[in-house]
Design goal:
- The chain is mainly α.
- It is about 70% helix and about 0% strand.
- The chain has a two-stranded antiparallel ribbon with strand order 1-2.
- Helix 2 packs antiparallel against helix 12, helix 5 runs parallel beside helix 7 and helix 9 packs parallel to helix 11.
- It is globular and about 55 Å long.
Length: about 400
Amino acid sequence: MVVAAQPRPRPRSAGWALTALRLPGLRHLGPNWYATVMGTAIVANAGAALPLDIPGLRTACTAVWALSAALLAVVLGARAAHWTHHRDQARAHFLDPAVAPFYGCLSMALLAVGIGTLTVGQDVIGEPAAVASAAALFGAGTLTGLAAAVTVPYLMVVRHKVEPGTASPVWLLPVVAPMVSASFGPLLVPHLPAGQWREAMLLASYAMFGLSLLASLLILPLIFARLVHHGPLPLALTPTLFLVLGPLGQSTTAVSKLADVAPGAIQAPYAEGLAAFAVIYGIPVMGFALMWLALAGAMVVRAAREGMPFALTWWAFTFPVGTCVTGAQGLAHHTGLVALEWLAAGLYAFLVAAWAVTGVRTLRGLLDGALLAAPVKRVSNGEGAHRCRCAPTSCFN
């Protein structure tokens, strides 16, 4: 009897095994995951801005900033692997009007961690390293934010099929990113050479403030019209109503921070005018933000009573509220009004609670695989709006 020699099977490398384990899970990892970084970083940034003397708060903010930096590294690595191994899916995200706006979150994640690096991170890594790191994050975040602010609206006009009644607060994400840069720029002004460099940073930040504000004013009426004519958002999307607070709180924060550094960057008449503008603009906008907070909160309570499921959209309860904390703190600094300090403290308490609950639910959904499940296509509900038939934790729209 002749026994044919059988070729020995090649041992599978550790790299192959790792790829087999991770790639299927990453296929549906979208850019909305950057919201976890934004929502974590704002807890540290807003806490550091509070005018209240709370024992241990600075240490806690530093720890949360370190967590946000680690999250940024993890999400950036996962997204890079997604683009490498699932490029078809990544390109499809650009062509999906429900997913493409989340590319603005990349910019805001970089900027939020950069702000924390400069405000609390220097306690750990020292001022020179903090300034250098913050400058790098500011540059990367600003460039990606400006690119998203132009690219996403362009795609919405020429490539996306946007149907009537589908306007969403998510549309604000790419155009709010430059407003975060406008709030970050003033923090770098004191570290620049006096004269042209400081003035250029100041005016560039104001330009990004105007870019983001005017673009947001174009989108906000569409969002309210969608609510009035087509009714409440789907349950899983209801938390995104809090995204409207983003341009409101962030713009108030921006004008306050810009007014703080204006005397050392621009001539006296303009510096005084910018200080007045911070209050004249900020108080009415903060009033509108509180009105919208009450409206969005009522809609969330209604949705919760109807069984609102957990989804990554819950991260909308964090970053936008955090911008209102920093906005109220800036107004308190410029007006000396104690009531605004208490407003900032109250909003911060809500922010911390929302971050803790959302973070725990996200970790649980990640461990059981629900947050990385493949979404199911949307279907029309017959009234012009769309209802998502996907697992709620993987819902984009």
